[in-house]
Amino acid sequence: MKTRPLLALDFGTANCLIIRQGRGIVLNEPTVVALSLKDKKVLATGSEAKNMLGKEPKDIIARRPLQNGGISNYQLAFLLLQKFLDNALGRWRVVKPDVIVSIPSKLNSIEERALVKALESYGTGKIHLYPEAMAAAIGAELPVHKPEGNMIVNLGGGTAEIALISLDGIVASRSHVGTGDALNKSISEFFKSEYQILIGEQTSERIKIEIGNALLEEDPEKMVISGKDTISGKSRSIEVSSNDILAPIRNVLNKLLVSIKEVLEDAPSELVSDLSDRGIALSGGTSLLKNIDIFLTKSLDIPCYIVEDPLSCVVKGLNLSIHK
Fold it and tell me: Which residues are listed for ATP binding in this entry (predicted)?
């Protein structure tokens, strides 16, 4: 008799990662699905679907079914999960897998039920829900079991999960809406107001990744950006530097700072004092924004550092938590 495979699932706003126990990471794809409006069939998922964003003809839609850490479109989320789980299971797809899945602390009961329902509809076995912040801390190899303050800021696409942890428990936390996606939106809005150029989501993300910076630079990186002129309607290109887009980036980071400070204010002083030596761990895709660790260190007066392999901390933590 075949044993049930166990999957660790990080179904994030921007990316989905799946670990199959004993096999490591078996799926790492953008959380995007493309659908034919004519027959409601899935045309593409992951990277292939992401490349369609903003370029679809009228009979095709490409969407991200998760927003701000929660399911915004149940039908698309189910179709995407179905494809991702099929890919992760391979020849084992006929066997019901047990699943451990991360959830942000802001997830309400309705969103939680939608996620569970989507997994049940696929035909899973047991479903275990696990706090995203705790999973990230475990995946970052923080000593969460000790009676000391351990702080994680998991910077995802939709939310930042901020938590101070001690003795295997979350002492103080916030689920801050507005991270990677908010940076993309802030950059695109800046181009519209400052340069009268419309740029799409993928262009905004490329700008953030290639020249985005949390600090002012003496020798800033530059790139040429093309977009649609809001007045003429024609394509127009301009050269911009990392310093040019510092303002829209800081607008987002300053709001993040407020949430981090609130967690520090809520926490016992004894645990906060531990952070002077231990520092604050940064994980998630948005932690890769250049100099974000230095910006937060200067702003909080507490050392902040980017963990090893920040993109896979949550899913690795889920997998490790099975053995805890």
Answer: 13-15, 157-159, 205-208
What CATH number has the domain spanning 6-29+72-133+316-321?
Answer: 3.30.420.40
Residue 66 or residue 164, greater confidence: 164
CATH H-level, domain 142-306: superfamily: ATPase, nucleotide binding domain (3.30.420.40)
Torsional class of 204: left (φ above 0), alpha (ψ -120 to 50), beta (otherwise):
alpha
Backbone angles phi and psi of 24, in degrees to 5: 80, -160
Backbone angles phi, psi at 208, to 5 degrees: -60, -45
What's the full length of the chain, in residues? 324
User: CA geometry: angle at 200 spanning 61 and 225, to 5°?
Assistant: 150
- pLDDT tier, 107 (very low <50, low <70, confident <90, very high otherwise): confident
What pTM does this model have? 0.94
The C-alpha atoms of residue 55 and residue 245 are separated, in whole angstroms, by 25
Annotated binding site: 13-15, 157-159, 205-208
Tokens of 74: 């149940």
| Strand stretches in 32-158, DSSP E | 33-36, 42-45, 60-63, 66-67, 70-71, 98-103, 127-131, 150-155
Task: Sketch the domain layout of the chain as residue ranges.
Answer: 6-29+72-133+316-321, 142-306
Give the CA angle between residues 15, 17, 21 to the nearest 5°.
175
The three-class DSSP label of residue 167 is coil
At 106, list the tokens: 């802001």
Distance CA 145, CA 150 (A): 10
Whether 317 shows a pLDDT value over 90: the answer reads yes
Q: CATH topology of 6-29+72-133+316-321 equal to that of 142-306?
A: yes
Q: Which two tokens stand for residue 219?
A: 């020798």
The partner residues of 241 in beta bridges, in order of sequence, read 222
Bind-site residues for ATP: 13-15, 157-159, 205-208
Q: How confident is the model at residue 1 (pLDDT cuts 50, 70, 90)?
A: very low
Q: How many CB atoms lie within 10 A of CB 185?
A: 15
Strand bridging mode 235-241 / 222-229: antiparallel
